[in-house]
Design brief:
alpha/beta, Aspartate Aminotransferase, domain 1, Aspartate Aminotransferase, domain 2, 2 domains, three-stranded antiparallel sheet, 13 helices, 12 strands
Length: 376
């Protein structure tokens, strides 16, 4: 008889993500190189040309720097903090798990505002903590009513609060004042602000100021900003005491040398990042306009990706995938009528629109309330 795992692990359900499912593509006779992936919200114009020069002649016989010293120092200069305020991780998902490992105890209440990234709940479950969920509503485009969150925080006194800002998948962005209210209400716990997509948002505010004198951890994703999904790279910003605690549970050599060197190199490309952000905005505006023309309702979003009403999201995704197009079925977020789309290059965006346009006869708008509406 095999040795059973901890009860929390035995009952654990996996978390669905966007991106390519390689086994699925093989079953359909497709290859990753032939699929246009609109399901991931990474920068399609990155990394900058010439970045690969930074990683030439790397000696793979040496272990990477466990402290990612050079990258932390470079990030610190950009952010206006000290290297002691930064922990580099293999993507923000690793950092979320480290936070849970370091701080969450069995049955600790942890507030999660949904719909949102599923890894927050998964990290809680692994640690044995108890997610307390506050779900925003479709009627208000999934915007959070902060007073509801503040009241719930006062009632349950959570060990931690997860805020995805801008939120995945809805694109809603909380103001500085709204986040400060959550910080004040949850002062006994940890406030984790996941800003993986903040560099694609307009009219942002300086959240880094919040780490001074409060239990706030900010997560950022270089994977998203610079199109480094294959390398996995993110970082946490917090007070030095919090960073020291996270260091204690962080695996050694958690960020490989190629990722560290590439991360340092792309931070030097500030102009290229600004140019790509502008192109991402233009591509998003094109997609929203064309989808609206075709009769699809799109939800307001402060960042690069956005939700569209698609009737049956699973069928909509499957129909597109037959044409080599991948979008994010939001059923796993509890939104079975929505898909999430992130812009790619303009030629690729035009291809997506052309394929969707063929799903229904000209002049016949999509019947978003029903399934089975697509021609393939």
């Amino acid at each position: 008889m095999s040795l059973p795992p901890r009860e929390e692990i035995a009952n654990l359900k996996s978390c669905s993500h966007g991106g390519i499912n390689y086994a699925e593509l093989r079953a359909l006779g497709l290859t990753p190189a032939t699929v246009l992936d609109f399901s991931v919200c990474t920068n399609p114009f990155m990394p900058p040309p010439g970045t690969e020069k930074a990683v030439t002649n790397i000696d793979t016989r040496q272990y990477p720097d466990s402290a990612a010293t050079e990258l932390r120092e470079r990030l610190a200069r950009t952010l206006g903090v000290t290297p002691d305020n930064i922990l580099v991780g293999s993507g923000t998902t690793e950092l979320i798990r480290l936070i849970a490992l370091a701080y969450f105890r069995k049955q600790d209440p942890v507030l999660i505002i949904e719909p949102t990234y599923g890894e927050y709940e998964l990290a809680c479950r692994i640690a044995g903590a108890q997610p307390v969920k506050l779900r925003t509503g479709e009627a208000n485009n999934f915007a959070l009513k902060v007073t509801d969150a503040v009241n719930l925080i006062k009632d349950c006194r959570p060990r931690a609060i997860f805020i995805c800002n801008p939120n995945n998948p809805t694109g809603q962005y909380l103001s500085c004042r709204e986040v400060e209210q959550l910080v004040a209400a949850g002062s006994d716990g940890l406030l984790v602000i996941d800003e993986a997509y903040v560099n694609f948002a307009a009219d942002t505010w300086p959240s880094v100021d919040l780490i001074s004198g409060s239990n706030v951890v900010i997560l950022r994703s270089m994977t998203k900003d610079y199109g480094l999904a294959g390398l996995r790279l993110g970082y946490a910003i917090a007070g030095s005491e919090v960073i020291n605690i996270l260091h204690k549970v962080c695996p050694p050599w958690n960020v490989n040398t190629v990722a560290q060197k590439t991360g340092f190199a792309v931070l030097e490309e500030t102009d290229y990042l600004k140019q790509s952000q502008k192109k991402v905005t233009e591509a998003k505006q094109f997609l929203v306009g064309e989808l609206s023309r075709l009769g699809y309702a799109t939800l307001p979003s402060a960042t690069n990706y956005f939700l569209i009403k698609a009737g049956n999201a699973t069928e909509f995704r499957a129909s597109l995938l037959k044409h080599g197009i991948l979008v994010r079925d939001c059923t796993s977020f509890g939104l079975p009528g929505y898909v999430r789309i992130a812009p790619r290059t303009m030629p690729e965006c035009r291809r997506l629109i052309n394929i969707i346009e063929g799903f229904h006869p000209p002049g016949d708008p999509p019947k978003n309330s029903r399934s089975g509406i697509w021609k393939t």
